[in-house]
Amino acid sequence: MTFRSAGKTDVGLVRKENQDNFLVLPAQMAYAVADGMGGHAGGRQASTITIDVLQQELASLDSLDQVRVEKALALANTRILEEAKEKMLEGMGTTLVLAFYHDSRWLVIHVGDSRAYVVNQKGIYPLTKDHSLVGELLAQGSITPEEAKVHPHRNVLTRALGGHEYVQPEWSQVAAEEAEYLLLCTDGLYNMVEEERMYTLITAADLTLEEKVALLIEAAKERGGLDNITALLIAEEAEQ
Amino acid sequence: MIQLGTVLNNRFQIEELVGSGGMSLIFRATDLVKHRTVAIKMLREQYVGDPVFVARFRREGQAVAGLDHPNIVKIYSVCQDQDVYYLVLELVEGRDLKQLLQSRDKPFEPREIYPIAAQICDAIYYAHHKNIIHRDIKPHNIIAGSDGQIKVTDFGIARAASEATVTHTGNIMGSVHYLSPEQAKGELADHRSDIYSLGVLLYEMATGKLPFEGESPISVALQKIQQDPVAPGAANPDVAVPEALEQVILKAMDRNPQRRYQSALQLKDDLREACFNNRLLYAREPEVDHFEDTLSGDDLSKIKGMGLREQEELMAGGVKNAPKSTGKTAVKGGSGKGKNGKKPLPVFLVILIFVGLAAGGLALGMYVSNLLYSPAADVEVPAVVGKTQEQALQELEASGLKGIISEDKVVRESIPLDHVAIQDPIAATPVKPGSTIRLTLSKGPATRPVPYLIGQTQQAAVIALGNASLDLGKVETINDSKTPEGIIMGQNPVAGTPLKAGETVDIIISLGPVIEMVKVQSFLGMPITEAQEAARSLGIEFGYTSYEMSWDYAKDTIIRQTPAPDTEMQVGTPIDIVVSLGPGPSR
Prior knowledge:
The structure holds two protein chains of two kinds. By secondary structure, chain A is of the alpha+beta class.
């Protein structure tokens, strides 16, 4: 089993700095997207530290497992806390969504509100539940999806790397055969672009993965580009 | 005997016989898994048939395997391959101290002694801290690497060996020269027994002689119990042992464990001062509360060498203070060779003792002068040791004497709290009416904290209790799913409770989980909330829950479970479940 992927990150139209980051480890079949938070360059550092730690801890391994991935996350968390203490950048943190292929499944770990979507012929489905105030209110049924979209505290996270001494990641999985495409993205994409539009772009015929990712980012900018935008699209390598 | 080239447990290839001991053979071997050279210490065949001994050998090995110190030969594992029982040890290249001692034509200089002894002290101190007593410190068990690194080996194994040897052959162990007097008497060894053995080792290194020589192990053991050694300085006419080093060795080898160094670190500190600066940090002074012990120490031999009158005077006065005075004089003056009294003690020294006394304590000094200048005493001091404070004071008063209670109390195993432990002067001493008798009260028997036993095996607990002079009480066994079989899961009283010597600690040992199989219930397709409720009512626990997208199962229903439905599982096994994230079949 081999996969192709295309990833792109864009500062958007409003923010001055891009605090998003992404990582592709082809040999480990692992993919990750991180969305930093906290001003004064803290957010950018937090997501960069996380991607660096993952690269350093996972890129040399023959294959990944859940324990190793959780350990890498814990290490990233510690590094962020140390850096925050050292540079007095209190409150810096980052989201993370990481997917890796293992034994015919996609295993996905996430902290915060960056998402993994599964796309197949039946539609586009979020695989992860947002660790945000709005996400949890929504999951409880306290608010409707419509209310969620305009909720004033959409950006409040309930879990993040660097937010707490301990990481509280959540695992989800999907059979690889169900996921024709796997999309990892930050809220800069899904808050701007409705799922139907994302689905149309991702499943469009005659477009390369790179073109699809570029169009997703353009769509977010067309709709305001209020936040940094990152999209990482993965598909099974077509047999030649 | 095992053939060279044999591979034990598919892992350790035996290469060469490199040594042997009373109970074991030592081979060099290759660990085929870890690709390193190790030492294999194999139980001799004659012991293999004794299950009690084999179990002890293995469990001791396991207890000692927890020691991890640069100066202790590491035990990697305790193994068995059919009838072969063996320990896998760190392989240390070098000569043992016995070979080293034999290869020299002169004893060690102090500056050579310290670097070796300091490392032994470190090793012993660390082990004592972990509640492991070596019990058989001797040159054969100390390996000196070519780089100067010292490694102590055979920790704790000695106990297994000595117990077994007694049952097998009825002999005491061979290395009686290094045994402490209490071990020779057959009493329990404690950490100070190791200090004694180290003292003997130092004696041998410094003088080239052993402190006690005899025709048989028994005669050596008897000498140890009854006599003090010849002072190191007098042991070998060709060697000058510095005064302070001599004092260190004698303090380490004191027949009374309480008067030895109480830790290997103290010994190490004093050795350093003695070897490099010829001075001491811990003076060798007796404890005030052990009249009998002191009397049977240096003093007895001194007394033997005296005239009758001198003896009487000394006995009537504070004989227990005598060594203090002589000791200090000797060290400070640097002149006290032959203190252990082969010659009669000169009269001027006796006077010196009393001068020392007067300087030491005014009350005692006055009492002594009282004695010296009032030969016509007309009252005998009554015996009040063991009586209550009130009773003792009454009896003294009835004899026309005054009793005063000393502020300090002493630990006495045999005397209850606040009963008289010491009277000074002792019973039947003739004194003038109106004299003052000092009474020291007992703190009662010493208590020791109960060790923490939970998580250990019964064998390890017996060792830990033995080290604290406590006994194992009732042993209860119950099933427990969280504690492996044979492991202690409860103790009474709890760790830290002060107990007196010989009191017992009850333990509860796990029999492991009750193994009862049931057929696994199916939760497939159930909504998670409903499944949780059902599980709760059935007493089943859910283990790891993971989430997976499914187009076959509705959101929040159970897709898979491990173990699978209708298989058999042990009661109490948690069931791992996979819950659907949706979207489910309807969409």
